[in-house]
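Inverse folding, one chain.
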């Protein structure tokens, strides 16, 4: 992955230039990044463990969205979020991501 400065007609470019291209342009934190096009796994080759972890994450996202809609619960999460911003070495930048990660860590994942 390399950072690059693109000329005027190409600045803000996102994606591939054509369907055959292996080069992929994206914007990360205000900078254009050039990398290989992401390769997605064949759904038939996804293991049961990956499917289980995906389900845990999917449920955590739904639960986080549900909890953040409730003002009282959202205020409690905001308090925990502000605390981790002060104490963590690499704090989460977004409240929603912090809530999803916390719920995911609390949920056991099957080992096989």
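Residues assigned per position:
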């Amino acid at each position: 992955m390399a950072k690059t400065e693109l000329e005027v007609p190409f600045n803000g470019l996102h994606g591939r230039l054509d369907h055959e291209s292996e080069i992929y342009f994206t914007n990360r934190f205000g900078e254009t990044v050039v990398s290989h096009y992401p390769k997605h796994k064949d759904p038939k080759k996804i293991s049961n463990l990956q499917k289980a972890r995906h389900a845990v994450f999917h449920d955590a996202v739904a639960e986080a969205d549900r909890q953040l809609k409730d003002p009282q619960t959202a205020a409690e999460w905001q308090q925990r979020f502000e605390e981790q911003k002060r104490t963590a070495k690499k704090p989460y930048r977004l409240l929603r991501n912090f809530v999803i990660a916390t719920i995911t860590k609390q949920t056991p994942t099957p080992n096989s």
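Strands lie at 2-4, 23-28, 31-36. Residues 3 and 14 are 13 Å apart (CA to CA).
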